[in-house]
Amino acid sequence: MNSALTQEELEQILNQAVQDITERTAGVRLHQGEQSPGEDLCTVHITFDRGFHTSLTLCADTSLLYRMARNSFHEELLEPEDLEEFGKEYLNVLCGRIASAMFQATRIPAHFNPPVFYHGRYEPEGREIQFVLTYSNEYNEGAQLIHHVPCPEDGNGAEGTLTEGSI
Amino acid sequence: MKKRVMVVDDSRLVRVQLQDALAGTDYEVAAYCRSGEDAVAQYDSVNPDLVTMDIIMPGMDGIDAAKMILKEHPDARIVMISSLAYEDTFERARKIGTRGFVDKPFYQEQLLKVFGEALD
Fold it and tell me: Is residue A139 part of a domain?
């Protein structure tokens, strides 16, 4: 049984999931780039347990998230709670796809907890950033998917091969 | 006459996507349920031709809800729709007697194919 993923493989899984799910659920094409979200942003955070102890944080320009939510819900006028509902559901579907792809690669079923939504930037405690995927759309609205791993207690970094329980 | 579908999913996104996917087809949404408990309670009164069932929902999950519906209505046609596309999830769903599995987000063509097979 192959129970390890390299960081490169994981980045590829995440990137494919982001581009495909965003286009299919929200009709928005995201391209990888360098442009970070601006000051007016929202964060949705989700943690994985059982299988992979990792977390994903999506930081996106509020305008981008509104655009995606409007397209998905087919409604022009949305309330802030609609934005929160969309952000959580989007990350849920995204993580389902990611968990399925990780299962295909490792045969390890992952479980993830309900997502949490924040207005502004949120950085989870006790975790460190392993890598960041940065995206923008045709309107120069930006988003980042941040992969966090638990802070090492023994001073060993989380680089290299990603194995069950550690990614 | 259109086939009546009972949609069991707590996600507004999925409800909108299903509505879009079924527009102009031989299917119509007969009822929405936001939880497994709601689905079990409403099944008799809705009496759908087909049920789409999410797996992860607050409270009773979709597998347990499907099991309860099938216990009372062994002929119920239930299709699971979930983003958790693991083989063991497919297997659990198949073992209790559900008729198909569609992973989220779905394409219309894939959805209608599974619906057709479930009703055969």
Answer: yes
- Over its C-alpha atoms, chain B yields an Rg (Å, rounded) of 13
* CATH code at position A45: 3.40.1550.10
Per-residue pLDDT of chain A (167 residues; tens, 9 = 90+): 335 789 999 999 999 999 999 999 999 999 998 888 999 999 999 999 877 788 999 999 999 999 999 999 999 999 999 999 999 999 999 998 998 898 888 888 888 888 999 999 999 988 999 999 999 999 999 999 999 998 876 544 444 445 455 44
CATH number of B3-119: 3.40.50.2300
Asked if A25 and B105 come within 8 Å (Cβ–Cβ), the reply is yes
Q: What is the ipTM of this complex?
A: 0.79
Q: Which are the contacts of A153, defined by CB distance < 8 A and separation ≥ 6?
A: none
Q: Per the confidence metrics, is the pTM higher than 0.90?
A: no
Question: Please, are residues B61 and B55 in contact by the beta-carbon 8 Å criterion?
Answer: yes
Query: How many CB pairs below 8 Å do chains A and B form together?
Result: 47
Q: Which of B11, B17, B83 sits opposite A97 (nearest CB)?
A: B83
Q: Is residue A165 part of a domain?
A: no
A98: containing domain: 4-151
The domains of chain B are located at 3-119
